[in-house]
TrEMBL record, chain A:
It comes from the Bacteria. It comes from Mameliella alba. This is Tricarboxylate transport protein TctA.
């Protein structure tokens, strides 16, 4: 493997590949910072540039954009409460409170380092265990997927700060939004009200920008606070450096996030969306002080960000080893190979070892470039907060509209996004949390799709979920999580009664 | 190996450029950048084909042909965009036949009328469907497969890239022609559907050559039959459906160029001429071959006939299924 890797670095350490890697990382960082201009849009934009490159340069550049957006994605989430993707929505939960406490620099430094550790460690996994991991991914059928997603959904239902009941209400709201669009098994359009714009469902990004970004602005203005004054925020370099306690609190979550992200990331289709939610929920569950989550917990942002980047790297395993893309961005990577006349498939690695190991080495180089690129930029980003709210919010609203529009170039999405902003405002007035909506929206349709397919293939026999060991373990864990929550709530109430 | 393809590709392309420059600019068209809408996401099969074709067109025209991905609603949204664009030859549609043939039969139907709103310029490429099973499935012939299916109706399953798509409908057509019952299982796109075949979640998949050839060459999957009229060069041992006695299962997904209705005849003529030269050029055909896609140039008028027959066939099939009801 070492020889292979050296061969890979031999391929990568040329001027053209390094340049491609740098351009990709740079573009990715900036695209990632702009909320809504997703990874896919950024990659498609630069796709024509890759035609004249060698396949290695092309893939390294595109994956640079991919990772770059992962690094950059948390920036707008932390500073402005603008999540441009599922993972950054999780980062919002604690990143934005940190930013409001004047700790934006610390949050950004920690997420950048968490991204780096998560990304780099997952590359090791990719290299060492590509083959066995692929067979694990292949052994997962809809039965296992359903139980796993159900477990993820139940385990993550506690991510919001408020009560379980309130979270459940919002998860169900999210599930309902997730049902909009064409059903896979029958092709039947659900809840589309005859609108072509709703046939493909509601975009998660549109909802997230509305519920987080628009709501925040409405809240600030409706609150009647002084919106003209620029907040007094320390933007010195020193403010960026995490304290010793921050480091201590972040270290283990980063490790756990990396592990979880790598494991979940190899499953085609599940990947990045689940990993951040699950990593965050796990940290909250095992924390001695879960009440600080949602109010600026370092553990929350560190684990979610590490998991997200690890999953992003791990997603390359099924893509390159099987030639099967787990997501739209991975499909674009394979499409790029096809444009270069390389047929994706199970033999891509053995037929093109230079390409595979070159790309792997390129990932590492990309991550190193990204950390050197991102750390100095933090000082620049946090200066944004010095801009007076009256000006800043107009800019933010512009970017929200632009981001919502760019999802599928449809004005309908912009209106929908603003609509969700009002929904989010009302929900916040009623103390209903927003994050579970996204959770329900992302995981609900996945769970439904796999449930229907599993039952279809099992000819309606529900015992299939119990006869598969992986599925059984997931279901038992899910049941255990529910039982634990009920027990904890019960104990909590008894304690309260006692103190009265 | 790869480098050689590229060198050849580059060489022929520049030759094509020299040969075509005269005739194409004689009409004064195109004078500026041409937009080519691909109604699917970047990186997908249609996008890759469209981009390769756009690259050739760019060289032939001496004007940039820019690919724009407008995905959504199985290609209807992007097609709708083209229908609404100016019919001046500066907006092209590169698409599979489905946005044309399925427009009326989908639920809900498309908001445009393909026969009224679109002019087919040329068919460019095609991919026959292979009825594929896992190599270790124990099925050596289609007859084996259908015999098991007949004994135990609904026991065997097939995957598709989504309900109502060409792969699903071809599976349904097989069911109808052979009188057996197979369980259809839909997936979100071709990738997951292939994964389901390879991992053993389903027993069979009607899948286009380009998507499955790598797995056949790898030995993990084998093809039992093809919908192509003749045996394929790369798979000489795989019989055609006609040979096996099911000539009606003959659907071959294909890709072509369309323009909005009202585009001047001269412009359509230029586009057709350039499309023919590009689609039949040695370089383009060789490129298609590396991806196991068949060259299938057909001029607009003949393409239109094929589209009409396909649309009617789908309409008939859809009415017997209770899709989306």
């Amino acid at each position: 493997m070492l020889a292979n890797l050296l061969q890979g670095f031999d391929v990568v350490l040329t001027v053209s590949t390094l340049f491609a890697c740098f351009i990709g990382a740079l573009m990715g960082t900036f695209i990632g910072v702009l909320p809504g201009i997703g990874t896919l849009a950024g990659m498609s934009l630069l796709l024509p540039l890759t035609f004249t490159q060698t396949p290695v340069d092309a893939i390294v550049m595109l994956s640079g954009i991919y990772f770059g957006t992962m690094y950059g994605g948390s920036t707008a989430a932390i500073l402005l409460n603008l999540p441009g993707s599922e993972p950054s929505a999780v980062v919002c939960l604690d990143g934005y409170p940190m930013s409001q406490q004047g700790r934006a620099g610390v949050a950004l430094t920690l997420t950048t380092l968490a991204s780096f550790v998560g990304g780099c460690s997952a590359i090791l996994l990719v290299m060492a265990f590509a083959k066995p991991l692929v067979s694990v991914a292949l052994s997962f059928s809809s039965v296992e997927y359903f139980s796993l997603i159900l477990l993820a959904l139940i385990a993550s239902s506690t991510i919001a700060a408020s009560s379980i009941t309130r979270s459940l209400v919002m998860i169900i709201f999210g599930l309902l939004i997730g049902l909009v669009g064409i059903e896979v098994q029958t092709g039947y359009p659900r809840f589309t009200f005859g609108s072509e714009s709703l046939l493909d469902g509601v975009s998660m990004v549109v909802v997230a920008l509305g519920l987080f970004g628009v709501t925040e602005i409405l809240w600030k203005f409706a609150d009647g606070g002084d919106t003209r004054r620029s907040p007094s925020i320390d933007v010195s370099w020193r403010s960026m450096i995490p304290t010793r306690q921050d480091w201590r609190e972040a270290a283990r979550p980063i490790g756990r996030g990396t592990g979880l992200g790598s494991l979940i990331g190899i499953l085609p289709g599940a990947g990045a969306a689940i990993s951040s939610f699950v990593a965050y929920a796990v940290e909250k569950k095992i924390s001695k002080n879960p009440s600080k989550f949602g109010k600026g917990a370092v553990e929350g942002i560190s684990s979610a960000e590490a998991a997200n980047n690890a999953a992003a790297q791990a997603a390359f395993i099924p893509t390159l080893a099987l030639g099967i893309p787990g997501s739209a961005t991975m499909a674009l990577i394979l499409g790029t190979l096809m444009i270069h006349g390389i047929q994706p498939g199970p033999r891509v690695i053995s037929n093109n070892p230079d390409l595979f190991w070159g790309v792997i080495a390129g990932f590492w180089v990309g991550n190193v470039i990204l950390i050197f690129l991102n750390l100095p930029l933090i000082g620049l980003w946090i200066r944004l907060l010095k801009v007076p709210y009256t000006i800043l919010y107009q800019i933010i609203l512009f970017f929200i509209c632009f981001g919502a529009y760019s999802v599928s170039r449809n004005v309908f999405d912009v209106l929908l996004c603003i609509g969700f902003g009002f929904v989010g405002y009302c929900a916040r007035r009623m103390d209903l949390p927003a994050a579970p909506v996204l959770l329900g929206m992302v995981l609900g349709p996945m769970a439904e799709e796999h449930l229907r397919r599993a039952l279809l293939l099992g000819r309606g026999d529900y015992t299939i979920f119990l006869t598969s060991p992986v599925s059984l373990v997931c279901l038992v864990l899910a049941l255990g999580t529910v039982a634990l929550s009920i027990y904890q709530a019960h104990k909590h109430r008894r304690m309260q009664l006692k103190t009265q | 190996m790869l480098a050689r393809y590229f060198l050849k590709y580059a060489k022929y392309s520049s030759l094509a450029l020299v040969a075509l420059a005269g005739s194409a600019t004689a009409e004064g068209y195109p004078e500026r950048v041409v937009r080519m809408v691909v109604p699917f996401a970047a990186g997908g099969g249609t996008d890759v084909l469209g981009r390769a074709f756009a690259k050739e067109l760019t060289e032939a025209f001496g004007q940039n042909v820019i690919v724009e991905n407008i995905g959504g609603a199985a290609g209807f949204i992007g097609t709708q965009d083209v229908v609404r664009s100016d019919a001046d030859g500066y907006t092209l549609l590169f698409a599979p036949t489905a946005p044309y043939t399925m427009a009326e039969h989908a639920t809900p139907p498309a908001t445009y009328d393909p026969a009224e709103d679109l002019i087919p310029v040329a068919r460019i490429a095609a991919q026959p469907i292979l009825f594929s099973v896992r190599s270790d499935s124990g099925f050596d012939t289609l007859a084996d497969f259908l015999a098991v299916a007949k004994d135990d109706p609904g026991y065997l399953s097939f995957s598709s890239s989504g309900a109502g798509g060409e792969m699903h409908l071809t599976g349904e057509k097989l069911k109808q022609a052979s009188g057996v019952d197979l369980l259809h299982v839909g997936y979100r796109g071709g990738g997951p559907a292939i994964l389901a075949l390879v991992s053993g979640e389903v027993d069979m998949m009607p899948v286009v050559t380009g998507s499955i050839m790598a797995y056949i060459q790898d030995g993990s999957v084998k093809a039992l039959a093809t919908t192509a009229p003749e045996r394929l060069e790369k798979l000489p041992d795989v019989p055609t459906m006609t040979e096996l006695g099911y000539p009606e299962v003959d659907h071959i997904p294909s890709w072509g160029v369309f323009v909005p209705a009202g585009t001047p005849d001269e412009v359509v003529a230029v586009l057709q001429e350039v499309s023919e030269k590009t689609a039949t050029s040695v370089a383009f055909v060789e490129y298609l071959d590396t991806l196991s896609i068949s060259p299938a140039y057909l001029p607009g008028a003949d393409f239109l006939e094929v589209l009409k027959v396909q649309a009617d066939g789908f309409g008939e099939l859809m009415s017997t299924l209770d899709l989306g009801q």
